Amino acid sequence: RTRVAFVSGVECFTARLLFERTLNAWANHVPSKENAYSNYRKCDSLVDFVARSGEVLGEAAESETHYVVVDQAERLRGTSVLTLLVRLSELLGGRANVCVVLVSTVVWDKFRVRHGGASDPTMVFFPRYTKAQTLDILAHDCPADEPPGFFLTFVDALYEVFHRNSTSVQELRHLVAMLYPKFVQPVFEGQATRSEFSRLFKLCQPYFSAASERLYLREISTSEWQRVGPASATNRAEDVAQAIYELADGSLGSGIMELPYYTKFLLVAGFLASYNPSRLDMQYFA
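RE: above sequence
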């Protein structure tokens, strides 16, 4: 049968990590407590990987093609891992038919392999999602107890507001998850009906404005955003905006100056990496 290994260019930044994750996927091996979070086989070099690949794929028919799909492949630019990937089928020496798929938002000319004598890959370009395709994806996030038509109308309005800033589906899904509870709250409080979409949108307008400046840039966390009062006819737009800005500026609570969203993760990651050897990453964070 065809075997497919999905690996991340962010996680597999060394050849050993790439080899071991690939073998785990091909062998359908999942590190767990039962196996002491060990990999299928230890691979310190290309020679080990070639030998272990023969063990895993040895019984497969020669006509079958096996795949290694690398997401965010641009993270491997300037490393020897990229050279190994583009020459993997050749380096396996005919032991198996392996195809490597590099997924990236960067054109090949930006991270062309300058050593190793590898040929250019076959490039397949995918266009951006259209508005209709994006709305179809976001429609799957509709809560089970909400009318799909009403939810899709909200998603369409949100797309019109934010698509100029970002067309990322993940970012739009995050905004939908944060803004929809605020948008629909007046319905549950009896201040408006679902048919009064214009009124609901007007009540939620301060949250849309603040989201474009604070939530989208991660200057305010999800938990802090949820503490902001719901949309209501009794709330002035200026008061809502001021409350959100004060949260983002760290003037509420203990008064401690908060670090930016991504800086927190970078600081925590640096602390953990400095105290834990890389061989324990799978055990601690899998």
